[in-house]
Design a protein that fits this description.
five-stranded antiparallel β-sheet; 138 residues; single chain; alpha+beta; 9 strands; elongated
Amino acid sequence: MKRKQGFTLVEILIVMVIAGIGLMTVAPKLAQNTILSDSTETFFQEIIDSHLKAATELNTQVFITGYKGSDTIQLFDGTRVSIPAGDVRTVHINEETATGAEFRIYFYTDGLFDQFRIEFRNKSELESYPALLQVVMK
């Protein structure tokens, strides 16, 4: 007598329950990473917009200063603000790796700014696209 091949309804239901439990444990972490990436993008987008406006109004280049191993950025007016993504690990400005503990990103009167890529300690990465006046979390 040949045995029928395939899965029973009970076996399929058990697999679906296990998969559902697995998704319930992963979903909150995915949501947290999405919120974190959105807030970091918004944070840097606001800095870009305000600093390009300041450079134009003052008719001089302005810059922000960051520090590797820190979660703060110093704005052109001296104000320090915290980066939502946390501590900066490495920075690349105009395709060059920033050396030393301090780095600067410049904003120019012609509406452009330095291209930068910031890697954070939590392994997330933010990249700027000056031609589009935009930043994107990766």
